[in-house]
Amino acid sequence: MRIVVDMDNTLTDEFGSTARPGIHDFLKSLLKSEHELILWTNSTAERARTIIAEHELRNYFNTFIFREDYDPQNTGKHKDIGSVSADIIIDDDPQEIKAAQHSKKIGILISPFRKGGKVQKAELANIKAQIDKASQKKWRLF
Fold first, then answer.
1. Which pLDDT does position 142 carry in this prediction?
2. In sequence order, what are the residues at sequence separation of 6 or more whose Cβ sits closer than 8 angstroms to the Cβ of residue 90?
3. Residue 105, class by beta-carbon neighbours within 10 Å (0-12 exposed, 13-18 middle, 19+ buried)?
4. Domain holding 100: CATH number?
5. Which residues, in sequence order, are CB contacts of 62 under 8 Å at separation 6+?
6. Domain limits at 85?
7. Which of the four pLDDT bands, split at 50, 70 and 90, describes residue 2?
8. Into how many domains does the chain fold?
9. What is the mean pLDDT of the chain?
């Protein structure tokens, strides 16, 4: 499956200074399950590339979509994951989840990761289980 992953408050905190605990193992597990990962962020390419390099996230993703690629005027345009043939989006923004679901895609809401904030230890495992279930369901259709 093709999975879109948000960056700010999802992979890292809002400042890009700290990676979400457990995110590297989570992304590795998705790749091991042969999913294709797309990073789609409302951050500018310059800012995002710095954060991606700083936290060694580059090798998990095949495709990168930055603000300039889909919303250059920063008008709040939603991430149209269908435009990249993605099946799932993981994002901390409930509006992005609703937009995906409106387009008959799977939207998985992750709790926002904030600087100094706590994360639920089981959250990433629960998200992985949701993806595994969706993946099994998709392959049964063929």
1. 42
2. 3, 4, 5, 6, 10, 108, 110, 127
3. middle
4. 3.40.50.1000
5. 36, 37, 38
6. 2-140
7. very high
8. 1
9. 94
Closest-CA residue to 35 (of 81, 88, 79, 82): 88
By the 10 Å C-beta count (0-12 exposed, 13-18 middle, 19+ buried), 64 is classed as: middle
Distance between CA atoms of residues 98 and 75, nearest Å: 18
Contacts of 64 (CB under 8 A, 6+ apart): 38, 39, 40, 45, 48, 52
Of 2, 106, 12, the closest CA to residue 97 belongs to 106
Instruction: Collapse the DSSP code of 5 into the 3-class scheme (helix H, G, I; strand E, B; otherwise coil) and give the result.
Output: strand
| 97-115 pLDDT per residue, tens | 999 999 999 999 999 999 8
